[in-house]
Amino acid sequence: MSSGRDESTMVLFDVDGTLTKPRNPVTGDMLQALEQLRERVEVALVGGSRIGLIEEQMGAEILRKVDYVFAENGLSAYRHGELFASTSIKETLGEQALQRLINECLYYIAALKIPHKRGTFIEFRTGMLNVSPIGRNCTQEERDAFEQYDKHHHVRQHMIEHLQQRLPDLPLVYSIGGQISFDVMPIGWTKEYTLRYLPDTQYRRIVFFGDKCYPGGNDWEIYSHVRVEGHAVSGPDDTLQQLHAMFLQEQS
């Protein structure tokens, strides 16, 4: 590390759609930019996916190439490669409420008519449920096709509205992310959850880059948080351009 590293500044990145194209591996250019950035400031990643999927996209060594990795919105938190905190949706909601939510999702998907349906409609994660109307077993071509279909027919948004109407007593928040799914988690468990690990006594500046920085998107809560300097990007190329403009000009 550079002796001039500013350890009071944290640059925090969404993964899917920000550092990588959706469900694609990271490029060498992006890894090089992160390495250069880490010589100047502290660097962290926050993704809705479990740690194994983040490692698939970012490389098996990513836990040691950045300061923090927050998987599942920070409910599994790693520092310098070591897990130091973990929280479970099962313990928080309880089995009865969890089954109500799962059953309502499955009822809705069973009646849904869309161009394709595959398998793994609900993925149970440590801190959330990831719900996919098409199913996570779809091919990349089917994934791309659903994303375009959803832009016109708002399948995910309509499903979220249905769940909100059917389960108004459950303290849940729903956020759309990626191409084919949305996340369901207890209120306060969006990506802003990571801020509890980044005290303002240590980090005077927190900069966040994400691609779903709009109400209902899974980057919105942290992007708009009062402690955070949020920057919306359109994809990895835009992230690189903004990074170089803000932090890496002398190394460009």
UniProtKB/TrEMBL annotation:
- Where does the chain bind alpha-D-mannose 1-phosphate? 23, 125, 136, 143, 181, 183
The entry sums up its family as follows: Belongs to the eukaryotic PMM family.
Q: What does the UniProt keyword field contain?
A: Cytoplasm, Isomerase, Magnesium, Metal-binding
Its primary localisation, in coarse terms, equals cytoplasm
Annotated catalysed reactions: alpha-D-mannose 1-phosphate = D-mannose 6-phosphate
On assembly, the entry states: Homodimer.
**Species the sequence originates in:** Cyanidium caldarium (Red alga)
Q: Where in the cell is it found?
A: Cytoplasm
GO BP, sorted A to Z = GDP-mannose biosynthetic process; mannose metabolic process; protein N-linked glycosylation
Q: Name one GO molecular function term.
A: phosphomannomutase activity
Q: Which Pfam families match?
A: PMM
Q: What is this protein called?
A: Phosphomannomutase
Per the record, the domain of life is Eukaryota
User: Where is Mg(2+) bound in this sequence?
Assistant: 14, 16, 211, 223
Give yes or no: UniProt keyword Ligase: no
Give the pathway listed in the UniProt entry for this protein: Nucleotide-sugar biosynthesis; GDP-alpha-D-mannose biosynthesis; alpha-D-mannose 1-phosphate from D-fructose 6-phosphate: step 2/2
Instruction: Give the annotated active site.
Output: 14, 16
**Claim: Disulfide bond is one of the keywords in the record:** no
Cited CDD domains? HAD_PMM (cd02585)
EC number(s): the record gives 5.4.2.8
Q: Which cofactor does it need?
A: Mg(2+)
